[in-house]
Amino acid sequence: MLTYKEAGVNIEEGYKSVKLIKEYALRTMNKYVLNGLGSFAGMVELPEGYKKPVLVSGTDGVGTKLELAFKTKKYDTVGIDCVAMCVNDILCHGAKPLFFLDYIACGKLEAEVAADLVKGVSDGCVMGNCALVGGETAEMPGFYKEGEYDIAGFAVGIVDKDEIINGKEIEEGDVLIGIASSGAHSNGYSLIRKAFPDINEDFNGEPVWKALLTPTKIYVKPVTEVMNKFKVKGMAHITGGGFIENVPRMFGDRQLTAVINKDSYELPAIFNRIIEKGVDKDHMYNTFNMGIGFMLCVNKEDANNVIELLNSLGEKAYEIGYVTAGGEGVCLK
């Protein structure tokens, strides 16, 4: 008799995985979650205090950074990347994350690996102030290679309609503040993997893969503190496409230009190493975050106070440029 296990799907391993994952999801729960794990769907109540609540959603994955996790068998950080890529995006419109769902796919399920992946997701949800209310783990033998996983996520946040940040109030002379990244985050890894065929090469006394697996920084808590105290006119999450593609997105359809001084902050060592590998520096501003993972646009008179607040919260923040008229998008000096 042919069984599901003989076809490559181990139901018992799936049960084990769920049991291991459950504790990680439970630590993210908050008062707005109305039902427990194991239901067919997660239920989340909208918080009080919103006059015209608008739900803001985003979805993303980790990309080829996952290959480093496969090679090093370190799976407990890429889940943070998955959450960060989603919640940082919805934050750009002033939304506070409410809940998150994940999707994990593999060729052969190993419960401990799946649990490590979800541990990272759980850690990311705690950092992002959102609840992990559900997810899916799909075992697909013959479709994915054994030992390889894919992970993606979906985040929903909330903002008052009158407080949506969409760039419409940005004016010439406004200041751009950059918040430091934690490294390459989760973008450009197809190029990184070409640049580092030996992931064990030395980088500041350790194998370079440790720096390359550093998880994406989650900016929800510090940026929320800024929004609570200052007028924020625009925000950009510097992801794939780097400065060139992402900074103009904060302007919407406005004919404005972000003038950015590349020397206003110190370029992190990992990017200098990538340049040493033969990657053109100018090209990198269209691929990587180049040390700035998140950007704020504020009134000139607020800039110093915003930077001081971010620094007091443990972030490295810099005045990196300003806004001028014209539709060039980005001007790097």
TrEMBL record:
Subcellular localization(s) per the UniProt record: Cytoplasm
Keywords annotated in UniProt: ATP-binding, Cytoplasm, Ligase, Nucleotide-binding, Purine biosynthesis
Domain PurM-like N-terminal: 54-159
The enzyme's E.C. designation: 6.3.3.1
One Pfam short name: AIRS
UniProt xrefs under Gene3D superfamilies: PurM-like C-terminal domain (3.90.650.10), PurM-like, N-terminal domain (3.30.1330.10)
Gene Ontology cellular component list: cytosol
GO biological process, one term: adenine biosynthetic process
Reactions that this protein is recorded to catalyse: 2-formamido-N(1)-(5-O-phospho-beta-D-ribosyl)acetamidine + ATP = 5-amino-1-(5-phospho-beta-D-ribosyl)imidazole + ADP + phosphate + H(+)
UniProt domain PurM-like C-terminal: residue ranges: 171-329
Chief subcellular location: cytoplasm
UniProt pathway annotation: Purine metabolism; IMP biosynthesis via de novo pathway; 5-amino-1-(5-phospho-D-ribosyl)imidazole from N(2)-formyl-N(1)-(5-phospho-D-ribosyl)glycinamide: step 2/2
SUPFAM superfamilies xrefs: PurM C-terminal domain-like, PurM N-terminal domain-like
NCBIfam families, alphabetized: purM
Family per similarity comment: Belongs to the AIR synthase family.
Protein name, per record: Phosphoribosylformylglycinamidine cyclo-ligase
Naturally occurring in which organism (per UniProt): Clostridium polyendosporum
Lineage: Bacteria, Bacillati, Bacillota, Clostridia, Eubacteriales
